[in-house]
Amino acid sequence: MIFLVFAFLIYFGLDSSNKLSHVIIPLHYTQISKLFLIYSNRSLYLPCKEKTSVSLIVLLTGHLNLSIENEIYFELNKSILTTSCFRSIKIQWAELSGNNNSYAKGTYIMFENVLKKQYSLSSASYVFWMEPDCIPIKSFWLDAAIQEVSLPNLPFWIKGSQFRGADELLPVNITGFQVHINGNAIYNLLSSSFKKFYFSKIKPNIKPNRAFDTGIFELIYENLPKYRQFLHKFQYTDFIQNTYFYPPKIESFKQINPYTYLLHTGSRQADPSQF
């Protein structure tokens, strides 16, 4: 029986290293206040029931600034939300400057460097890319994220939410926007085939001035005959929802969506402490 279980895990690529290893929070130093709102002791929602093996990485766009770094370490290390849930807390600097330190270009660079396992990610397996406008609406969201990559779930490249906001917010000039998986998602850094697919198929052909998440799916859906064999590697989940705006009646939303723990609310979000 043990041999059969082991053979199953090997066949499907589900060995003990296939687990959520990191939560990555990419942000500009001007967004630090949003980080503190989510992870301060005033937040209503604990990430976990008990301490996990997941590491938290705060990935800042600019160059090393010890004053900012010390402030972040101080705030996160005094928060029960981080110290009781994450194995470790690290701050990494992307060393971006000039045009590279803009939202669109900077996010691209950091995302691709994450795929290359930079920023102290050499041991990473699955990572959750969680931008500062990704708001918890329920306790134990980190436990839920861990469960998304655990058995009986099969391996994936990206797992997250399609656009689930209002129709009037849909852009008319981006193919596949309704079905694209928002960038706040879980990524498989163990998969060499995923990295090969991205860097050989997506990166050379992606349209300019696109965010990395919309750019990936725009290219796929404009070339479905070529890429449909890979569609099963991109999986939807209720664990996170890309609503872009926060719902006006959050309690009703939570009742209708009992498996949703996080909302991507976009730039016009509310103070997460009100949830």
Count of DSSP E strands?
A: 10
Overall helicity: 25-40%
Low-confidence stretches: 2-13, 268-275
| Pattern of helices and strands | HEHEHHEHEEHEEHHHEEHE
Order of strands across the main sheet: 3-2-1-4-7-6-8
Distance between the ends:
47 Å
- Tally of DSSP helical segments: 10
Structural class: alpha/beta
Can you walk through the features of this model?
With 275 residues, this protein is an alpha/beta fold. It has a single domain, classed as Spore Coat Polysaccharide Biosynthesis Protein SpsA, Chain A, CATH 3.90.550. The protein is built from 10 helices and 10 strands. It has a 7-stranded mixed β-sheet, sandwiched between helices. Strands 5-10-9 form a 3-stranded mixed β-sheet, with no helix packed on it.
Which characteristics define this entry?
alpha/beta, disordered C terminus, 7-stranded mixed sheet, 275 residues, 3-stranded mixed sheet, Spore Coat Polysaccharide Biosynthesis Protein SpsA, Chain A
